[in-house]
Amino acid sequence: MSAAPGRSQASSHRSPEGEGILVSTPSLLVQNLSKRYGDTPVFSHVSLRVEPGEFVAIVGESGVGKSSLLNCLAGLDDWNEGTITHHGVDLGALSETQRAHWRREQLGFVFQAFHVLPHLDVAQNVGLPLLLLKRPDPARVGQMLEAVGLGGLGERLPAQLSGGQLQRVAIARALVHRPGLLLADEPTGNLDPGTAQQVMDVLQQQAQESGAAVILVTHSDAAAARAHRVLRLTASGCF
Ligand SMILES: Nc1ncnc2c1ncn2[C@@H]1O[C@H](COP(=O)(O)OP(=O)(O)OP(=O)(O)O)[C@@H](O)[C@H]1O
């Protein structure tokens, strides 16, 4: 069992071999990852290195396993072979409790279907990750609401918001605790093209400001075009 996951580590460190040489620590390192559902292979031999602050888009045909891969990267689902390392923490070596702790500290996740809690108001939704970490911070929540263009709407219930506004709530919630890694699964899939563009502007800008590495799964060429790199997932890997 590896050490319990901690707070975000520095993105680079001194090489033990060569004084003065800076060696980058990837935000995420995926090596030779394979997943099956029962006997049915989903993806095989996926390797991927994402640097801190990097924005990577993953595209691929429907059913090729993009959401399954993202769920593995989040430690929400198990894989059959290979390793996933986040800032040196081997996700496969963590217990369920340790993974849950790692997710709370280090991960933001934005889903296509928003997944905001209907009975909590907007500010409570955004503040939830901080509450779960026992670090409530109304000022930070207010700052995130302003940053995503929802200043003044903190007391509204989700039912009183548009789809684009709901996704901005989800983005604020995903980044409020300054995670090292933001995973986004088709975040604009339910939005019209204009709203999708605004939501991607907010996602990209806020992730950049917080220094989070972003992995975006999308069918949208416009969304993928914003990424530093676009990787295509196929049954035999990520290219
Ligand atoms: N829990 C599960 N049990 C069994 N098979 C599953 C499960 N979840 C997904 N699958 C199957 O695994 C394959 C990959 O699904 P996944 O949702 O990861 O693909 P995707 O590339 O994200 O698809 P899309 O682009 O349509 O969202 C599909 O054939 C799907 O039916």
From TrEMBL:
It comes from the Bacteria. The keyword ATP-binding applies. PROSITE patterns: ABC_TRANSPORTER_1, ABC_TRANSPORTER_2. Keywords: ATP-binding, Cell membrane, Membrane, Nucleotide-binding, Transport. The keyword Transcription does not apply. CDD domains: ABC_MJ0796_LolCDE_FtsE (cd03255). Gene3D superfamilies: P-loop containing nucleotide triphosphate hydrolases. GO terms for molecular function: ATP binding. Residues 28-239 form the ABC transporter domain. It holds the Pfam family ABC_tran. Residues 1-20 are annotated as: Disordered. PANTHER family: IMPORT ATP-BINDING PROTEIN, LIPOPROTEIN-RELEASING SYSTEM ATP-BINDING PROTEIN LOLD. Belongs to the ABC transporter superfamily. This is ABC transport system ATP-binding protein. It comes from Hydrogenophaga palleronii.
